[in-house]
Amino acid sequence: MSSTSKSQEELDSIFKQKRVVRSTVRKSLKAMDPSLRTQQDESIQNTVLEAPWFKSCKRLCAYISCKSLNEVDTSQILSEILQNPDSNTQKKLYVPWVEDKNSNMRMLHISHMEDLIANSMNILEPAPVDAQGNEREDVLQADEPIDLFILPGLAFDRCGRRLGRGGGYYDTFLKRYQDRAKEKDWRYPLMVALSYSPQILEDASIPVTPNDVLIDALVTPSGVVPITPRAIERM
């Protein structure tokens, strides 16, 4: 057997394992008590909003939570960023816009919640052009680096492994941002994922491929879990 077919077999096996883990975690999330979910949403968002690493960041990418996907709520975090009129603490926010079905996603700058519209899946995202007809700034074309990524996911472990929903959008985008940061010699941003308790699995139980991007830290209902040396240093 050639090394190519062997590696493809290994990848196929990993993708199969991922599907099994996704199915298990989806069932756990669906079974969560709504009051517990609300409590954990509040706790996680409050932890982020009070964290020094969040308060000090100037530019960040964050996801817009979708209730139907059972994602940790980010509405309070986004509101705090967009409604804060104090220019000394104002943060520049970029949020996801799905470009196509081939795992291509962009992060576009928004200034107000009104900049968001529902897409065909009823998920809020920015229109690529603003009300004045100007193209929104793409973070991959920005002149300054991002300090922080607030990431969604389906499952995580305390080794930094993150399991997405299977589309590959975030891993593809994050690889592109890594290349951009390297090219510009920028300090790499903190990669922080938000997670309900049922989403945190035993260490190394999440299968990974070479294309999977690891996270630096988790924010859980119990607090922050720094993982990488970068997170330990900055958090």
Automatic annotation (TrEMBL):
Its EC number is 6.3.3.2. It catalyses: (6S)-5-formyl-5,6,7,8-tetrahydrofolate + ATP = (6R)-5,10-methenyltetrahydrofolate + ADP + phosphate. Substrate binds at I64, E71. Keywords: ATP-binding, Magnesium, Metal-binding, Nucleotide-binding. ATP binds at K18, R19, V20, V21, R22, R162, L163, G164, R165, G166, G167, G168, Y169, Y170. One of its GO terms (cellular component) is mitochondrion. The keyword Nucleotide-binding applies. Its cofactor is Mg(2+). Belongs to the 5-formyltetrahydrofolate cyclo-ligase family. This is 5-formyltetrahydrofolate cyclo-ligase. It comes from Arabidopsis arenosa.
